[in-house]
Amino acid sequence: MDKRGQVTIFIIIAIFLIALIAVIFVFRGSLFFKPIPAEIEPVYTSFLSCLEDKTLVGINILGSQAGYINLPDFEPGSVYMPFSSQLDFLGNPIPYWYYVSGNNIEKEQVPSRSNMERELENFLESKIKNCVYDNYYQQGFEIIQGEPVSKILIRDEEVEVNLNMKLNINKNEESVSINNHKIIVKTKFGKLYNSARKIYEYEQNNLFLEHYALDTLRLYAPVDGVELTCSPITWNAEEIFDELQEAIEANTQALKLRDGDFSLRKKENEYFIVDLSVEGDVRFLNSRGWANSFEVFPSEGNLLITKPVGNQPGLGILGFCYVPYHFVYNVRYPVLVQIFSGRELFQFPVAVVIQGNRPRKPLNASMVGLTSPELCENKNTFVQVDIYDNKFNLIDSEISYECFGERCTIGKTIEGTLKKEFPQCVNGYIMIRAEGFEDSKILYTVMNEDHVEIILDRLHELNVELKLDGKSSNENAMISFISEKSSKTIVYPETKKISLSEGQYEIQVYIYKNSSLKLNEVDSEQCMDVPASGVGGFFGFTQKKCFDIKIPSQIISNVLIGGGKENYYILESELENSGVIEINSEILKTPKSIEELQNNYLLFEERGLNIFFK
């Protein structure tokens, strides 16, 4: 019986080992990181740099065009309503977020965050193939790009770019093929957009721009009142409108937001301070050169005429004359709202409308947005979603559902739980985003009512301290934390903070130093086998053909002087109890020749890193 028990144990161990080997074989591509050869790495770095540049171009277009890259269909204005659907600002069209059409219909065209993500995705897919590699082609590199498919996530202070595109880079005997590319672009675009939405919703709910316009109208134009005179009073409408336009332009530019909360009752010197606080610097602009409309009733041509009361027969008993007047104005003009953070900008225009001496009626700002995708219009299946942290505490988060490239917002959890209708979809994804946690994407099929529980990994912000041979270093470095769920990279020492969650990471550190290392011009001969000419080629024979390759001289401005790689499992306890992650790397000899530079890259592959939490 003992022998049988021992045999059974050996059989179980054998089955376990076979299963483990099978798993490693099947998933070897995702379990192990394949390093990029040193000779090819500059090409891939240039590709990632180009990807970042194209992303920034798209973000800048979104910011300058009110959240659009491809503008909505143009709708002209009319004599009655001068607004078209776009504001011409210095020759550049910017879609209005709110305007009144030429046939007097109020319209909104405010892009949602998902709309902007899709626009940026389409922009990247159309532009990424325009990256220039002429310098590398001259060096003998062969670069082949496949069809791109991108996925963009716009967050408050960064934009995550996930690009699925086959990229083959070949030179001599070195070759690499990379399909998935991910970068994090540091930008405050998301925060600026949030501020823009906050200002817009405040305007739609409170009409503060219209109230300032009405105050300006009453201050600079005759609206209603009484003058003690026995002579008629006349005003020139054109002169009134000129003065009114000048006042509107100056007063609009004087508006600013309060840096913090304050009482709605403003002091006299705080008249131009709006009761609103947002992130970023805000500027309000108006120009008399933009499309506008000013009307006044009653009028006789360009004149506003009032007649006195008291000098008519039978009214002499009054003993005095007075001139009452009451004029009704319709005033319409645009205001461009600009939100800044450093050199980053988000701007959008709105139409300010005064009708019959009264502000227009507020719109329901909660209805702002473009038409939702068809997927979101067919929510018909209840699903309960519970969101926990890794200590099984319920946490609040934003939940959306994605199916076949379309994403729709489901809602926010209340005390960690949400029960709402989802659209039906096979192999869709539940997308979860919670402040202070790693974003999560769960494959989930919605066909029947169900209940799903999801655990999120908490993010912990750490200061990064880099050391070379045990001494603090401020050399330029690229530090990457790569895991199956995310890839994060910082450029040190410009950035010394990173947010991490528990998990297995491959930590990569490349430390560079300024250099003027010159690579001399190289003339070389490269030979390859090609099909033989004549009958031999028909039967598959080959012949050797050689080519002369000339690589021009160039200056290498940055050389590798340290770094390494380390696989490290970061524990939740290390993140909770530490404020600093210290990375210690061995220093390498500063290369003075191409041979020494190549040797540094070879040594880099063998060097590890010492990781400490403190």
Question: Which properties best describe this structure?
Answer:
five-stranded mixed β-sheet, alpha+beta, 4 domains, five-stranded antiparallel β-sheet, 614 residues, Immunoglobulin-like, 11 helices
Q: Concise description?
A:
This protein is 23% helix and 41% strand. It has 614 residues and is of the alpha+beta class.
Describe this structure in words.
This protein has eleven helices and 37 strands. By secondary structure, it is an alpha+beta fold. It folds into four domains: 118 residues, no CATH class; 178 residues, no CATH class; 81 residues, Sandwich (Immunoglobulin-like), CATH 2.60.40; 154 residues, no CATH class. The strands form twelve sheets. Strands 13, 14, 17, 18 and 19 form a five-stranded antiparallel beta sheet that branches. Strands 27, 28, 31, 36 and 37 form a five-stranded mixed beta sheet that branches. A hairpin with a 2-residue loop joins β7 and β8. α3 crosses α4. The radius of gyration is 34 Å and the shape is elongated. It starts with a helix and ends with a strand.
> In percent, how helical is the residue content?
10-25%
Q: What overall form do the CA principal axes indicate? A: elongated
The N- to C-terminal Cα distance equals 55 Å
Task: Report the sheet-strand fraction.
Answer: 35-45%
Q: How large is the count of helical segments?
A: 11
Q: How many extended strands?
A: 37
Give the low-pLDDT segments.
Answer: 27-33, 260-266, 311-320, 365-373
Average pLDDT works out at 82
Number of domains: 4
**What integer value in Å does the Rg equal?**
34 Å
Biggest beta sheet attributes: 5 strands, antiparallel
User: Would you tell me the structural class of the helices and strands?
Assistant: alpha+beta
